[in-house]
Specification:
Blueprint (H helix, E strand, L loop, with lengths): L36 E3 L5 E3 L14 H13 L4 H12 L5 H14 L1 H13 L4 E9 L2 E9 L3
Antiparallel strand pairs: 1-2, 3-4
Helix pairs in contact: 1-3, 2-3
């Protein structure tokens, strides 16, 4: 766009127009924690505590795990394609085994929630039940679902 020249005259500021571009930026964020190490005169070492959940020298963060579970469980993207997405788009090497482990971890953490939901459905005055056939490794299986308005 070229420079705009106004014709001669008197002008007053009456506001502005705006335009926006919405875009995405896939990036990797690495946070390093350091724990001070002290050694006594007798050679015994003492290491400060790391924050809760920081238990390995390198580990995946919560956002990587959540995004992986979302892609594989809600979007039903196969593990190897989730692995490829992280490798190609964010340059984070995640194996299909890690995707499985993320899903297993959240499954275990949701056990209490599942128990509560089941009890609420049992107490519910009206429930909807359904089943549908799905193929797993070429074999027909039945997927059952029970729900209510909530």
């Amino acid at each position: 766009m070229g420079k705009t020249t106004l014709p001669q005259g008197n002008y007053k500021d009456v506001g502005y127009e705006s335009r926006q571009i919405v875009d995405i930026d896939f990036s990797r964020v690495v946070t390093e924690y350091r724990a001070q190490v002290l050694e006594s005169d007798s050679g015994k070492r003492y290491i400060a505590q790391f924050p809760e959940g920081v238990s390995r020298s390198v580990q995946y963060g919560i956002n990587v795990k959540v995004h992986s579970v979302y892609m594989s469980q809600f979007q039903l993207i196969p593990y190897n394609r989730v692995e490829k997405h992280f490798q190609d788009q964010v340059r984070i090497p995640i194996s299909a085994g890690s995707v499985y482990n993320f899903n297993k971890d959240i499954y275990d953490k949701l056990e209490i929630f599942e128990t509560i939901v089941k009890s609420k459905l049992i107490e519910s005055g009206l429930c909807h039940a359904d089943e549908t056939g799905i193929n797993i490794e070429g074999k027909r299986r039945w997927l059952h679902c029970v729900s209510n308005n909530w």
